[in-house]
Structures are given as C-alpha cells and as structure tokens.
Amino acid sequence: MIVNIAFEGCCHGELDEIYQSLQQLSVPISLLIIGGDFQQRGHLTLFVRAVRNWRDLNCMAIPAKYYRLGDFHDYYSGKKKAPITTIFIGGNHEASNYLWELYYGGWVAPNIYYIGAGNILNFDGVRIGGLSGIWKEGDYYKGHFERVPYTEGTKRSIYHVRQYDVLKLYQVSERVDIMVSHDWPAGVEQYGQLNELLAKKKYFKSDIDNNALGSPPAMSLLRRLRPRHWLSAHLHVKYAAIVKHQPRNQRNSAVTHHASQMTEYFPQIPKAGNADEITIDLDDLPTTADAAVANNYTNEDEIAIETYNGQDANKIPAPNSQKVVVDSVDDDIKVDEGNLASAAPIPDYQVDTPISFDEDTISGRATSACLKSVVGDAAAGQTENTTDARGFSATRFLALDKCLPRRNFLQIIQVRTQEQNGAHKLCYDPEWLAIAKAMESYMSLDVQQPELFATTTERETLAREIRDAREWVQSNIVELGKLEVPNNFHPTAPCSHRDDSSRNTAKLQPTQYNNEQTQVFCDLLGMPNRIRREPGQ
C-alpha cells in the first residue's frame, strides 16, 4: 500500500489554509506532518495558534507587543476539527506550558497530535520519529527543570533539546521511515547544492563556517538511525540533500564511550592552506554528484503545492516549477554510482584537534558524551556488523520554507508499506514503548542531569532493562490489542476568544495543568507520572 503523507515546514499559524489546500488535491492525503512553530508573523502582530487562552501567550519567548490570539482556540474548543490527522513536533515558538503537559505525546486538539519531546509512532505501517525543540549547547546536558511560572530564561531553555531525549531515540534499532526535527542536522547542507543555498541565504555562510548551523545531536541521530527520510524546518528555506551511508562493517570501528575522553566531534569546514589541520574520516563524504542527485532526482508522481492563502477559494496556485522529490515508492534510493565516481569530491572535513569519532557519538560540547546502542549489542549479543538491515543505504533530507504565498512549504511524500488496507489510525510503537518504560527513571527533573550510561556496566544494565521492557510490552500491550493511540482529548485549560474580556487580566502566567492523557500513557506502561504536578509543588 502507498501512503500519501503531506509535510509542511513551519506552520506559522496557517492551519486553515493548509487544510483547505490539501483537501482540493486529487491525491488523497492520509496524514499531515508539521515541522513545528505553530505561529504566524504579520507585519506588526504575532498570531499564535498553539495557545488556548491569553495567559498561554505569557509562556512564549516572544515580545509582549506581538501578542494576539489566533484561532487555535477554534480547534482546541472543538468548533473546528482538523480534517486530516495531523502530527507535529515542537519548535521554538510554542506555548511550552501546554506542550509540557504532553511530554510523552498527546492530542492538543481533536485530530492534532503533538509528538512529544521525542517519540516513534506508527501510522498505516509508516514508522515516524520526531525530536522536538532546537539545539542549544548550554542546555543540552541539563534536566527538564523548567516549570511555570517561567522566567525569561526558562521560556527559552524549555524548548532546547536535551541529551536524555536524544539518547532515548539512540536506542531505536528497527527501521525508521521518517524522522522529523525542527532544526537541521548539523552539516547536512554539505550534501546538497550548497552554492544554491548560499545564493538564497547569504547570511548562512558565517554560521556554516563557524559550525553554528544546525544540530550536532540531530546529525548523530541521522547517522545512527539511517531513516529513509529526514524532514526539518526552522530556517525558512527549501533545501534537499541525500546523505549516503557506508555499510557498518566498513566504517571506523573506534568508539569512545566516556564524556571525559571526548573532544567536540563536529568538524569545521576546511580552510584552504592550513597545513596544521588534521583530517578525519567521516564515513562517506558528500560529492558534487550527490548534490546533483539530491537536486535533480525526479519522479512524475511528486507533488509540490502552495496554499492559495485566501486569494481564490476555488483555485490553488500553480506548483513551484522547481521540484525536489522526497520519495519515490521504491524501497531505497537508486544512485548512479558511475556518475558519482567521476565527480570531484568535496574536500575532507578538518578539525583542529585529533578525536576519536564514529557515528555512535552523541555530540554536544567540547566534552561530549557518547553512547553505543545497547539494544542490538549487549542485549542480543550482536555486533554493529550484523545490523545493516535496520537502516537505509541513504537518507533523503528535506527542509521546507514557512507558509507564505509562492514559497515552497508543503510537499507530499509517498511511502510504501506492507499494510494492505490502511485504517488511518495513529498507533504506539512497541519498541519505543519499551524504551520509554525502561528509561523513565533516568530522566532528571532538576537542572542537573546525572551523567548517563558512561560505563560498560551502566550500558549493559540499560540493555537488560530495555529487553525486559520489550517483553512486558509484548505481553501487556501488543497481545492485548492496546497499541492504538486512544482518542482521549479533553481540554485542560480555559479557552479564550479574540474578544474575550479575560485579555485584560491575562498578564500573569497560568498554573500548570495536569493532562489526563499523560496519566493514561503512564498507566499503560505501568510507570509513575512524574510530569504530574501535585498541589503545592
């Protein structure tokens, strides 16, 4: 079966237009994935969609002069319902107090599902992963300590990616079809048409030269998981790339496991003429032919559309003439190796200090932590050389623009699955449930996050815990038919309207609400609900 999935970059508050555009297509869309930022910037006003009431606005990292309630409350209250099942990850313009209620994932409105801080879900046989937030080095190793009322600092730190959530995703050993992050994996721009990107976004060059563009942990996950697709938003430009992966038995086998033994792995783009720089092997470096494949790989079934943005309710504007194919329905990417061999390679990456690196590194800062996946190694007695089947030989990266007329912000992905008749149901993933159950006790709710899995003994313990949890999930959830995500949305906070008089008394932040969906999820896995806030806390 072929599943048609729409991907939208930064939503920026245009839910109505996106849904109306998708409904006018001749191709049936089963699922919409949004890459974060449920808000829209007007000329003078910020229209926020992912807020329920005026007080939620005070939990966002935006200037108060831009506050204006959008129409998310229509979806939240049930006045409107998303016509297509929608899942989204968190970006850096969200009502973080609401999303924290649903740390493990949950419905923010009928038929609109927040994927959580990190997650793997199944939809009609398509395995979809997500990592919410953006990269910020100073907060990466902290715990999830932020609570309302937020300070100006914690309004921002709460949406910064945490190492703990990355390490959970790092334990995934089964194939992932689609992975979504808000910011780009660091260095992915090197695998596409970089010159064309810089022609559109000249100010990216400084960040690229200084290794400041994108998320190092996201790139580490891309190398580890090897998904069929990696989708991102955040930078407001359409960009495609293909990252090829070497067979695991051909890569550098050196692994350094302890943070104190690591230096920052993510390399600088080489500077010509520096004889003191040290070359390292980063598996298969991109070539100019790789970039050409990423830009020109065509499929006549590919769909690129824009919303009509209210200009004509009966007509969608013509698609952008520059097509970038995200997916054919083949099981893997077909690359003409003859063309690749004749192309001049991009020069090797360089770094200023020697390091021990392989794709099992979780990056973050000068003293980086790393973790080898213990599910297939210590738990099952397998080695890296025997696990090639879990990933794809190449990952197709796509970033899209924000939702504006004549911008490339929406595209259709076609994925073949083994399902015969899709029920269009969102389901939990058994492997992810086991990981979530096994790793719950390691999450810190304080500023300090204890160092995670630095020793062989700790990694072996985690492997055993995940294995035991997988058996528990099989017996208590899978075999009992409990994998379908329950349709259990209920409003937790009052709903405001644009002309609501509560705006005049909304200068304070709201209290932290307890979401019953989170309690139901924790009960399903038989684990404590540490997201719940008790009276007096």
TrEMBL record:
Query: Which cofactors?
Result: Fe(2+); Mn(2+); Zn(2+)
Which InterPro entries does the UniProt record give?
A: Calcineurin-like_PHP, DBR1_C, Dbr1_N, Metallo-depent_PP-like
The entry lists its GO molecular-function terms as:
metal ion binding; RNA lariat debranching enzyme activity
Which Pfam families has this protein been placed in?
DBR1, Metallophos
What does the entry list under GO cellular component?
nucleus
Keyword field contains Chloroplast: no
Major localization class: nucleus
| Alphabetized UniProt keyword annotations | Hydrolase, Iron, Manganese, Metal-binding, mRNA processing, Nucleus, Zinc
SMART domains linked to this entry: DBR1 (SM01124)
Compartments annotated for it: namely: Nucleus
Biological process according to GO: mRNA splicing, via spliceosome
Q: Report the residue ranges that make up the Lariat debranching enzyme C-terminal domain in this protein.
A: 382-531
Q: Which PANTHER family does this UniProt record tie to the protein?
A: LARIAT DEBRANCHING ENZYME (PTHR12849:SF0), RNA LARIAT DEBRANCHING ENZYME (PTHR12849)
Q: Which family does it belong to?
A: Belongs to the lariat debranching enzyme family.
Q: Which protein is depicted? A: Lariat debranching enzyme, C-terminal domain-containing protein
Q: Which organism is it from?
A: Lipomyces tetrasporus
